[in-house]
Amino acid sequence: MQLLLSTRKGLIQLVPDGSGWRTLRVSFPGIPVSYAIRDPRDGRLWACLDHGHWGQKLHRSVDDGVTWQEVKVPTYPEGTEVKPGVPAVTRYVWVLQPGPADQPGRLYLGTEPGGLFRSDDGGDTWSLVTSLWNHPSRPTFWFGGGRDEAGVHSIVIDPRDSRKIQVGISCAGVFETCDEGATWNPKNKGLKASYLPDPNSEVGHDPHLLVACSSHPDVLWQQNHCGIFRSTDGASTWTDVGQPGGPAFFGFAIAADPLDPAVAWVVPAASDEQRVAPAGAMCVCRTCDGGATWQALRTGLPQQDAYDIVLRHALDLCGDYLVIGSTTGNVFVSSNRGDAWTGLGHHFPPVYAARFA
């Protein structure tokens, strides 16, 4: 097992070392890494970089991060516009998702300003999925949330059928294709967008992260700007399973148990206006009954003067292990599904993503 921390100051690889964890290596020191992942099909590492001066960069490694090869970052076709007079430029790379086992060269990449890119040659070349970009809702109903433009940050491939893909877009909602990207439909029935004139609008929702139970892929979860939502019918309808009054209500990260469709974890924040740990006490909330109830797990987490916030990709699950990394540089690991936590360090750079590899 390995842990990949994508941070504001580089990519940090950690490995178990007896009863703890140690740093294996640091890549791209001093450079913001927005997301990193290992492709389970061939073992390659991928790192998405957010250079302040040089813009977005993409790198891959075939030797576990010892050396890296720069790959051309996807670009929007010439003449593509976000809106009339505003050229579409790759401003941020949110997520890279390896394709299914039956498509060994397939990769997906989600970007701001709302573009989904696809590669069929292992990342050597990329093409914009124009069918999603040209969806008639985009010019009017897609917009930026915390960033200037919409962003594709979640890509869920159905393990039963690689032609079926769901993406989470802030702010637009969940969109689904069942024909490998030829056509797309919004899947937001039951979601609430309290910030819109019509809270039940078909498009304009703000999922912070979309995940699925891999063994029961019709069960999906999303940590949403307006609560926590769950679907049991493949995203056709959504049910609010948040905990009004908290703590399990507002947040960014969510993880789904791959075997039990009733189990999920979130990391709460105080509120939209106060993006810090609720009441200065950090916790992870777990449900074991499909969101009917939530248990706040606190053992080993700071319970006083905590300002931690965990971003959308900075919670991950591997077996009984969970990891969370915060923007204040705290990283915690649990080996018992969240019942108790151990700090790996409190002086890491701000953590953008934490992924087991």
Tell me what the structure shows.
- By secondary structure, the protein is mainly β.
- It has one domain: YVTN repeat-like/Quinoprotein amine dehydrogenase (Methylamine Dehydrogenase, Chain H, 7 Propeller).
- 2% of the residues lie in helices and 43% in strands.
- It is globular, with a radius of gyration of 19 Å.
- The mean pLDDT is 97.
Describe the biggest sheet?
Answer: 4 strands, antiparallel
Task: List unreliable stretches of 5+ residues.
Answer: none
Just give the CATH class.
Answer: Mainly Beta
Question: How many helix segments?
Answer: 2
Name of the CATH superfamily = YVTN repeat-like/Quinoprotein amine dehydrogenase
Q: How do the strands line up in the largest sheet?
A: 3-2-1-30
Mean pLDDT comes to: 97
Report the end-to-end length measured between terminal Cα atoms: 6 Å
Number of strands: 30
Helix/strand class: mainly beta
Query: Outline, from the CA principal axes?
Result: globular
What is the CATH architecture assignment?
7 Propeller
Query: What name does the CATH topology carry?
Result: Methylamine Dehydrogenase, Chain H
DSSP helix fraction: under 10%
Strand content: 35-45%
- Count structural domains: 1
**Nearest-angstrom radius of gyration?**
19 Å
